[in-house]
Each structure stands twice: as structure tokens, then as C-alpha cells.
Amino acid sequence: MPVAMRLSRGGSKKRPYYRIVVADGRAPRDGKYLEQIGSYNPLLAKDDPERVKLNEERAKHWLSVGAQPSDRVMRFLDAAGLKERKARNNPQKAEPGEKAKERLEEKAAKEAEAAEAAKAAEEEAKAAEAAAEETPAEEPAAEEAPAEEAAAEEAPAEEAKAEEAPAEDAAEEKAEG
Questions:
Q1: Which uninterrupted H or E stretch holds 24?
Q2: Is 117 buried (19+), middle (13-18) or exposed (0-12) by CB count in 10 A?
Q3: pLDDT confidence of residue 112
């Protein structure tokens, strides 16, 4: 007969009170038990000494005979120092999956590239400031103006080419059709 150390519920609705009992493993939760070895009142404060009462001598006896405690009773026994409870947390469960790790690596790589680009831009700005301090103020303005004008002239020319191409295609289709 498998012997279990478990909780047997008592109390009224929404006001639980438990007995810590040793019972046949096949008996119902609140049914017949072999011996009551303590009590547990979850309504009391966690630091209240009356919350968990446990007859340690009888608990040791039943453990030595081979009684298997439930998880909650195992917590009480561990707190009393009678039996050590192993941690049930699996730290590997909290690790992200392979694809999530890949996404994090990609994100870190992009951030590193952005940081390098920002540093390069800062260095260029510092170099431009240093060059501006060394040369007279009129020359950089004169150099920038033709470059800006050339860029402004190139942009409309490209837009015009893009607009002409669809118009030519439409004209060819009309001629064919």
C-alpha cells in the first residue's frame, strides 16, 4: 500500500483549513487517513507561527517508513529541516529559442553598424570644422555652392527622364494598336 503525506481540506467555502495527514495513496483527498501529523491555515499571515503546525517526530517516522510527501507538504518539511526539497525550476526553459537569438544578433549587428556610421559622421564633421578653421571662411562657401547647384540640376534631369519613358511607351502602344 503506497503511503502519502498530503493535505486534507476542511473549512467552509472560501475559508480553507488543511490537515497534514498520512493516508493510503488510493484514499480520497478528504477521506480516511492513517494519522494526522499537523495542520495548515493559509488564511494566517506568512510569518505567523500558527500557520503551519507539524509534529516533526511523527513526520520523521513516516518518512523513514517510506511515505511520499506531496509538493506542498514537501515545502513544509523543507522549512522544518526534515527533508530537502529540490528546486523544480528549469533555467533552460527561460532561454529564448534559436530564431529569437538570431534576431537579437542581427539587431546587435545593425546597432553596431549604426554606431560606426555615427562615429564616422562625427569624424567627418570634425574634419570639416578643422578645415574650415584653417582656410578663410569665403572659400568653403564658394566650394559648396557649385556642388549644390550641380546636384540640384541633376535631380530634375533624372525626373524628366523618368517621366518621358512612360510617355514614350504609351505613344508606341497607341501607334501599334
A1: strand 15-24
A2: exposed
A3: 94
Which grid coordinates belong to 101?
537569438
- Give me the helix-helix angle, 56-65 and 71-80, nearest 10°: 120
Distance from the first to the final alpha carbon of the chain: 95
Give me the torsion for CA of 42, 43, 47, 51, rounded to 10°: -50
Q: Is the pLDDT of residue 67 over 70?
A: yes
* Better pLDDT: 135 or 157: 135
Secondary structure string (H, E, C) spanning 95-133: CCCHHHHHHHHHHHHHHHHHHHHHHHHHHHHHHHHHHHH
- The answer on pLDDT for 123 being more than 80 is yes
Counting DSSP H helices and E strands in the chain, the numbers are: 4, 5
**Which residues fall within 8 angstroms of residue 176, CB to CB, at 6 or more apart?**
none
Q: What is the CA radius of gyration of the chain?
A: 40
Q: Comparing C-alpha atoms, which of 69, 63, 64, 60 is closest to residue 5?
A: 69
What the block records as the C-alpha cell of 25 is: 495513496
